[in-house]
Amino acid sequence: MEFFAPVASFRDPLFPRASRSLPLPPPSTVRGMLAAASGAPAEPVTLGLAAWSEGRGVDLETYHPIAADGSNPAVAGRVRAIKGGMTVRDRPFLAGVHLVVWLTEPDGSRLQRALRRPCWPLRLGRSQDLVHVRAMKRVILEAAETAAVGHALAPLDGHRVGAAHTYRMATSLSTDRLTTTWADYLWCDEPTGTHPVHGAFKDTSGDQHEGQAVWLLAP
Q: How buried is 29 (Cβ within 10 angstroms: 0-12 exposed, 13-18 middle, 19+ buried)?
C-alpha cells in the first residue's frame, strides 16, 4: 500500500520540551492510521514499512498547554498567555511524505477493503496532516539474505549499513493511551543499495519496489 502526505510532522515524544521531529512516521502512527480506516479501537497488526520525504522545514505553532492544577483552564480551546500558558514554538515538519506499507494476509485484504471506504479521515501525525492512498496491490515477499535496504524501517539486527541511524519509536499504544510500547529501529535517510540483511524479506512485485528489503515488525 502506497500513501502520500503533502505535509506531516512526527514529534519525538522522548523530547517533551524540545521541538524535535522524527524523519518518518513511527509504527504506532501507521497502525493508528489503519485503525482510522477500519474503525477499530486499535490495529495491532504485523507490518513492514518504508518512508521518506522530499523536503523539510520549520513552522511556528501556538501551544495552549493546560495546567495540571487547573490554575489556567482552557476556554474554547485556548489558555491565557501567562508563564506556563499560551506560547509560540518552532514546529519542524516534513514536506512530500511517501509511505509504503506491507501487510500480510489476512490483515492485508481486510485493511485493503477498509482503506477503500475508511471510517474516519486518514491522517499521519497531526490532525490536519491528511494522507492520500496512491496504490494498493498484492505482492509476494520472499525470504532474503541480500536486498535493497533503501528507506525501510529495520530492527537493530536487520543489517549493518554504516549510514543507518538508530531511532527509538513507539510501536503501539494502548486504547486508553496510558501505555506505550517502544522499540529501537534502523533507518537510512538516503538509499544505500543492496546489502546483506537478517530476518528480512524481499519484494518481488516487479515494479519500483522490486528487490526492496521488508522487515515485518510486530506490534
A: buried
Structural contact between residues 100 and 14, judged by C-beta atoms closer than 8 angstroms: no
Confidence of residue 11 (pLDDT cuts 50, 70, 90): confident
Q: What is the mean pLDDT of residues 171-180?
A: 90
* Model pLDDT for residues 115-130, shown as the tens digit of each residue: 999 999 999 878 889 9
Over the range 117-147, which residues count as b (16 or more CB within 10 Å of their CB) and which as e?
A: ebeeebbbbeeebebeeeebeebebeebeeb
The residue written with cell numbers 520472499 in the block is 142
Supply φ then ψ for residue 23, to 5 degrees: -85, 0
